[in-house]
Amino acid sequence: MAQGSNYKVAFRRRREGKTDYGQRFKLADLDTPRLVVRVSNANVIVQVINIRNGGDETVVSAHSKELRKLGWLGGSKNTSAVYLTGYLCAKKALSEGVEYAVLDIGLKSSIKGSKVFAALKGAVDAGLEIPHGESVLPEDDRVKGQNIADYAESLDGDELNKKFSQYIERGLQPVDLPNHFEEILNKIDEAEV
Predict the structure, then answer these.
(1) What is the DSSP letter of 158?
(2) Within a 10 A sphere around the Cβ of 34, how many other Cβ atoms?
(3) CA-to-CA distance for 186 and 71, rounded, in angstroms?
């Protein structure tokens, strides 16, 4: 631990591992909204935020719990749910007049095909303009849950009930996830956001 007159205590949110102030400073353009993606242990939140001198202003926000109101029966933090939440947030942002944003993934590692990039893909597919490279986006089959459906088909009845008990309790067979994904995507398009 450094000592002496040159020692400076880091900001509290940096010490807690919540904010990377170096990255945040680079994103701090007062005219450009940020698409903020945060994946927790149980849910995902996607927000469009403007940086203001008096503090950040949340323009629109979408939470994976909102998908339940639209009839989503799948997991609330899987890649499909993250994509749908990003899509929903972008639809809300477009209705508020926001057409351009930059991605803010916070302290998450930038890993090709990860969930934060699924939210990016959802926002871009909804019509929000966000600078990105196509190589980081997850594959369409993964976004639609085809990998989950293929895995579920390879299991026998007992293993399927054990590994996908929450899906089955909610009334969704895991092999039907890609079709269910398309249904919810259509409901978001039809909804007045």
Answers:
(1) H
(2) 21
(3) 11
The whole-angstrom separation of Cα 163 and Cα 148 is: 11
3-state SS class at 32: coil
At 19-62, the pLDDT tens digits run 776 666 666 655 789 999 999 999 999 999 988 777 789 999 99
Alpha-carbon gap, residue 135 to 165, rounded angstroms: 34
**Nearest C-alpha neighbor of 181 from the set 172, 192, 170:** 172
- 63 pairs with which residues across the strands? 45
Residue 45 CB coordination number (10 Å): 17
Cα–Cα distance, 172 to 168 (Å, whole number): 5
- Average pLDDT of the chain is 89
CB-CB neighbours of 51 under 10 Å? 16
64-88 pLDDT tens trace: 999 999 999 999 989 999 999 999 9
